[in-house]
Amino acid sequence: MSLGITLVSHVPEIVTGLSELLGQVAKDVSITTAGGTNADDLGTSMDKILQAFSENKADEILAFYDLGSAKMNLELATEMTSKKIHLYDVAFIEGAYTAATLIEAGVELTEIEGQLKPLALKK
Amino acid sequence: MSLGITLVSHVPEIVTGLSELLGQVAKDVSITTAGGTNADDLGTSMDKILQAFSENKADEILAFYDLGSAKMNLELATEMTSKKIHLYDVAFIEGAYTAATLIEAGVELTEIEGQLKPLALKK
Amino acid sequence: MGLTVKNVIEWMNNFSAKIEQNKQFLSDLDTAIGDGDHGFNMSRGMTAVSQKLSTEPKTITDAFKQIAMTLISTVGGASGPLYGTAFLEMAKKSSTSSDIGDLLAAALTGIKKRGGAEPGDKTMVDVWTALVPEVKTNKLTQEKIASAVEATKDLVAKKGRASYLGERSKGHVDPGSQSSGYLFEALLETEGIL
Amino acid sequence: MGLTVKNVIEWMNNFSAKIEQNKQFLSDLDTAIGDGDHGFNMSRGMTAVSQKLSTEPKTITDAFKQIAMTLISTVGGASGPLYGTAFLEMAKKSSTSSDIGDLLAAALTGIKKRGGAEPGDKTMVDVWTALVPEVKTNKLTQEKIASAVEATKDLVAKKGRASYLGERSKGHVDPGSQSSGYLFEALLETEGIL
Ligand SMILES: Nc1ncnc2c1ncn2[C@@H]1O[C@H](COP(=O)(O)OP(=O)(O)O)[C@@H](O)[C@H]1O
Ligand SMILES: Nc1ncnc2c1ncn2[C@@H]1O[C@H](COP(=O)(O)OP(=O)(O)O)[C@@H](O)[C@H]1O
Ligand SMILES: [Mg+2]
Ligand SMILES: [Mg+2]
Ligand SMILES: [Mg+2]
Ligand SMILES: [Mg+2]
Question: A-side interface with B, Cβ within 8 Å?
């Protein structure tokens, strides 16, 4: 069972940049992104999220997002995909960085989730 | 006394993207950025941070960063500038978004800092 | 006469027209306590919905499903998944009921589940919570709609972008509540649907 | 004979040579528990330092200041502000003392203040904490340097990128400790400086 990461932001550049940052410490982790609306404006897109889920090479995906409205599209997409998605209400960049580091090190999901706990936020 | 924001990230795209996201809710707030090393590789640059401080139109600057090593360059730059800098160990994107929203609404620093408290992280 | 594919389309086209007419106003409301795009988001969404419905769907269920998916794909802001979920729930409910009150009640449950907002949080949930019972008891009026929208003005936002403003969100009508008001107005104006 | 501008330059050129020779090794150490760039960061920084020092600074204080500012501007990673702060503190201290032990003690205080790390946190602070007293008491040896570096292997990282790995950071030498080891080796090899 492999773990991957999907990053969702209101801004395309934020997720491409973050994906680069994570790639440095997690070369073997599948990281896919969904940034901006379908028209690449500021906002999020359930279609892009679904695509990021399906492009991800892992069986189970840890999903991270920037602001609250992204979460709603993430949840909609989660209901529409057959993949197992874990959604975290944690600091976006810091949480995704932590998860990427730990997945790369072969750490198991329950332990990763333990490490994400201190990064939890009301979002 | 005006309040501005400086964003520091290891990746140039992350801060340009984030600056766009904040600009949407804080049109009148001076937001300056420092992303990547002097050679635009992944990392941070004290020189770029100093420049972001000096380009900022505000008298006092609230500074936000992504990962720990950025903090060290931020502190070095803080010691070298004559501007008043407030540095926050909070969730990067969520904290900067909160601050931008509140500065735009004319909220005072102490109240802003109160709202940033729940976003604090060990970074 | 109740719900038909035709009057659902009429309802949506009327809603779309109201959004179009007030898109700047809705975005201005959103500028005060959000990111200033709600009118443009809804306009993009409802223009696409009207376009979609120009080919008449076969059933009411299909119609609601198409409305939902179109809003989800085009709105871009929080209101996209929220209105999208509302119409998805109406589509589901429409397979066992053709009562508009029942459908709207299912929609409200969906909106609350999707966004986690409760009445009083200064979101569209407030307007829906006030008006769905009026539809059910056949007592919806223009005045009740206006006052439900207006009532969001003095609330402190607990959900969505406005919640970052805390106390400062007071004194402004919630944009999503205003657009929801137009949805109910359009419903009220649609001959034979209530 | 103690510190002179000439032997500081010699020290730095020797350090730079060791970094150059081991940059892949340092980056490999960093790949295991960080982002894999420590050797490249330090190589970029020390190449620039050697370049800078090819024009001989007037005083020891100037030399340390130039080393510091060059590292701060070119390294890019956490090690930049850390080594930069170390040499800045040495520059400051050198205006009142020319004892290398005193200077290195000031540097260590600066590193700890800059990064907030304490001994045992699996950072360069561990190597500096072990070796500065040896310099002060004139007992620095190659063996002590090697064992101080090696001692970071079994620690759990509490600071820097490796700290994200928690327990998993055990079993790998800390890259910044390894490069600090080279700094002390270069010092040991510089005729007349100790
Ligand atoms: N969690 C939520 N639950 C219910 N309604 C919400 C929630 N978040 C936002 N809204 C509604 O959405 C409206 C904002 O929509 P819009 O401006 O299109 O989205 P965004 O805030 O992403 O730009 C708000 O005025 C509010 O009525
Ligand atoms: N907070 C800190 N305090 C002391 N040393 C630190 C700290 N953070 C990192 N380091 C040191 O820096 C080294 C990593 O340097 P480098 O790879 O150049 O930076 P980065 O981690 O930003 O890529 C670590 O091996 C450690 O010795
Ligand atoms: Mg909006
Ligand atoms: Mg928006
Ligand atoms: Mg590194
Ligand atoms: Mg690095």
Answer: 9-14, 16-18, 20-21, 24, 35, 42, 66-67, 91-94, 97, 118-119, 121-123
- The mean pLDDT value for B99-113 works out to 97
Kindly report the length of chain B.
123
Q: Any idea what DSSP says for residue A83? A: S
Which amino acid belongs to residue D70?
T
Residue type, B26: A
Confidence of residue D2 (pLDDT cuts 50, 70, 90): confident
| pTM, 2 dp | 0.96
- If phi > 0 it is left, if psi is from -120 to 50 it is alpha, else beta; for residue C122 that is left
Residue of chain A minimizing CA distance to C38: A43
Task: Tell me how far apart the terminal alpha carbons of chain D are, to the nearest angstrom.
Answer: 8
Handedness of CA C35, C36, C37, C39 (dihedral sign): positive
Domains with residue ranges and CATH for chain D:
5-189 (1.25.40.340)
Domain boundaries, chain A: 3-119
A87-101 residue pLDDT tens:
999 999 999 999 999
- From atom 8 of ligand 2, which residue's Cα is the shortest distance away? D160
Q: pLDDT band at residue B8, thresholds of 50, 70 and 90?
A: very high
CATH fold of the domain at A3-119: Rossmann fold (3.40.50)
pLDDT tens per residue, range C44-97: 999 999 999 999 999 999 999 999 999 999 999 999 999 999 999 999 999 999
**Partner residue opposite D78 with nearest CB, options B45, B47, B72:** B72
Residue A106 gets the label, from left (phi > 0), alpha (psi -120 to 50) or beta, of left
Residues of D within 8 A of B75 (CB-CB) are 81, 114
List of chain A residues whose C-beta atoms are within 8 Å of the C-beta of residue C159: 68
Instruction: Point out the residue among D76, D81, D82 whose CB comes nearest to the CB of B41.
Output: D76
Could you report the per-residue pLDDT of C88-118, keeping only the tens digit for each?
Answer: 999 999 999 999 999 999 999 999 999 999 9
